[in-house]
Amino acid sequence: MQARNAVVTGSTSGIGLATARELAKRGCHVMLNGFGDPPEVDRLCAEIAAQSGTKIVYSGADLSKPEQVRTMMAEAAEALGPIDIVVNNAGVQHVAALHEFPEDKWDLLLAVNLSAAFHAIKAVLPSMRERRWGRIVNTASVLGMVGAPHKPAYVAAKHGVIGLTKAVAIEVAEHGITCNAVCPGTVMTPIIEKQIAQQAQVTGLPQDQVLKAVFLGKMPTGRPVPAEEIAATIAFLCSEAAASITGAAIAVDGGYTAH
Q: CA 79, CA 56: separation in Å to the nearest integer?
């Protein structure tokens, strides 16, 4: 993976940051993306670059806006060169009963969790096809495989991500491009911590009980999945060794979907 060029969205924290670190460690130049305090983002970029010896750049694109997704992909190619790897990881969440679910939140979740991946893939595919090599990994969720209450937009979007993954995989398979989805179980990221607080408000349960009953109760391992394990799975899917894996939705979920 030496000198491959990668874009990882939602990579200023959580799974995305772990993935950016892992790809850089393996020799990739990486564009980070996400929200964050500018000095902290600059520090992150400098730290990863110093540790990996690769080029690390940043885009603050708002992925709810298609034109900013397209601009980010163009800026990544200008800064790094042709993009070899795209990890569509950015995600947002809102928890509420369906009859109370705000319509603007529905639109936002579908825009960031699903449509942004479409726009990023569309932007990069012509170059990948021309060079006959590419790796696309979409971060879905176990909730892209099963349903859950109080998360209608998230569940719908993540099911859509898996569908998009399969459609892209079939379309570009003969061009040396793979497209896969990873489906994490509970990972203690900022978005999950916020979900725990929201779920506690909806259910009236203390947060520790919400974590155990709602987020870990169906995971036979009984523990959150470390973000680094998700990152390692993504990095493998981006490697030459994974050239024949495409259109897959790979659960990294502590056994959640084994039930």
A: 9
Q: Is the pLDDT of residue 220 over 90?
A: yes
**Residue pair 193/187 in contact by the 8 Å Cβ criterion:** no
Could you tell me which residue, 193 or 25, shows the higher pLDDT? 25
Is the pTM higher than 0.90? yes
Q: Mean pLDDT throughout 154-175?
A: 98
CA dihedral 193, 197, 200, 206 (to 10 degrees): 80
Q: Across the chain, what does the average pLDDT equal?
A: 96
CATH H superfamily, domain 5-185+226-254 = NAD(P)-binding Rossmann-like Domain (3.40.50.720)
Backbone φ/ψ region at 178: left (φ over 0), alpha (ψ -120 to 50), beta: beta
Task: Mean pLDDT check: name the lowest of 17-31, 61-75, 185-199, 244-258.
Answer: 185-199
In this structure, are strands 134-139 and 56-59 parallel, antiparallel, or unpaired? unpaired
**In sequence order, what are the beta bridge partners of 86?**
7, 136
Q: What is the band of 189 on the pLDDT scale with cuts at 50, 70, 90?
A: confident
Q: Which residues are catalytic?
A: 154
* 187 Cβ neighbours under 8 A, 6+ residues apart: 14, 15, 224, 225, 226, 227, 230
Spatial distance between the Cα atoms of 139 and 148, rounded to a whole number of angstroms: 18
What one-character-per-residue DSSP string does 130-166 give? HHT-EEEEEE--GGGTS--TT-HHHHHHHHHHHHHHH
What separation in angstroms does the CA of 70 have from each of 121, 177, 209? 10, 20, 42
Query: What's the Cα-to-Cα distance from 38 to each of 18, 21, 33, 63, rounded to whole Å?
Result: 19, 18, 12, 18
From CA 236, how far away is CA 97, in angstroms rounded?
37
